[in-house]
Specification:
It contains four helices and no strands. It starts with 5 loop residues before the first helix and ends in an 8-residue tail after the last helix.
Length: 80
Amino acid sequence: MIKKNKIPKYLLSIGHEEGKSKAKFFRQIGFNESNMKQFERSLLKIATNNDVSENKISKINIGLLIQLMALLMRPTEKSI
């Protein structure tokens, strides 16, 4: 389960200092307040359908991986 405010207050928040770059990306590929449930399902699908390993991967690499996977599950056919 994703915390209730994580998506609107962080991942889609242009005003959040740390989340604004993520929000810009996710909004460009079509996620917004009108499809937060779909966004949550996409994130949960990534988490449940992929194995976690204990490799030394930086936070930046994990973020890029999530962004690339989100592209595959985006709600629209918008190009970025």
